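Give me the 3D structure for 23S rRNA (uracil(747)-C(5))-methyltransferase RlmC.
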Amino acid sequence: MHCVHFAAKRCQSCHWLDKPYPAQLVLKQQQLTDLLADFKPAQLLEPVASAEQGFRYKAKMVALGTAEQPVLGIVNAQGEAVDLADCPLYPPAFAPAFALCKAFIQRANLTPYDISARRGELKFILLSQSLHSGRFMLRFVLRSKNCLASIKKHLPWLLAQWPELEVCSVNLQPKPAALLEGEEEIILTEQTLLAEQLNQVPLYLTPQSFFQTQPVMAAALYQTAADWAAQLQQQQGEFKQIWDLFCGVGGFGLHVVTAAQQLNGIEIAEKAIASAQRSANELGLTRVRFQALDSAAFAKAAAQAPDLLVVNPPRRGLGKELCQDIQRLAPHWLIYSSCNAQTLAQDLTALPDYKLLKVQLFDMFAHSSHYEVLTLLVKHA
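Predicted structure for 23S rRNA (uracil(747)-C(5))-methyltransferase RlmC (381 residues):
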């Protein structure tokens, strides 16, 4: 992939872009191999490669410049405002979408926030596109409600210019700290969810719910987990109960569960849980229950283990206490999806009762040192 911004040293976000993509993949696989060597995985599978460009369906753009001449991008290490509206990581539909965002900023007179002066209102533009439908969700992150009336006034113009815009919202982040978003979200459109579909499984994304940056790779990740679970059941007999901790909008659990099985999906975000339950209902899964609870607290309170435990924790990993409860509960099978192999290794150390059977790298973040890992573990006999 060629990027004019990287070549000019204006943006180094893709810090491995100077390496040929096959070499990036080899390096990631070697790093993972070295990191997990002590756990002696029975199978270290070939990595799943990414497209080299046009794969990011989520954009997080800092609002810079002025209301008259907005810039959407980053502030680089040299302190320069770099417009990334033409970034080749995004699919083709993003460039005209960013152009409409800039026109709207001008029209609604949204002054970009100046961190040093602590003036201005618009902090970020957050944009997501559904791989399935091509439709968009747009979020304006504001310092206060001062511009809310102007956004509401001019929104009909934006919707008329941009028929693919499905969901639009304002997020309030009043703190001067470098936080991407705040707790309060104000939905401005009739539609409140962006519909996605991966591997024939419907998923509904709320403005504040977590979802993978690259849906093509997410589909491969979910399908692989489903295939591993199906293979186990062919060999060992069907699972009666499955847990999906840190379930988000239900991606893993809804791929793994069958109509005859019980599934408990646990996620702290209530709106994500509502989305997951909606998907389960559409799939006709009557024995599935999604609950808005803390995953570690749910495990601590549990007295009986599921047959299969699926976990997809944030970058910090499971942590010592949750690992202790997994050890105590002793589910026979564990599928662990990790976005941080370092904390994965720490958690595996804290799970000595488990053997690492399968490991597979999914290159969710091409041109960087980051990647996703899917693992299958079994409790020692």
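Residues 145 and 172 are 7 Å apart (CA to CA). Let me know if you want a second pass.
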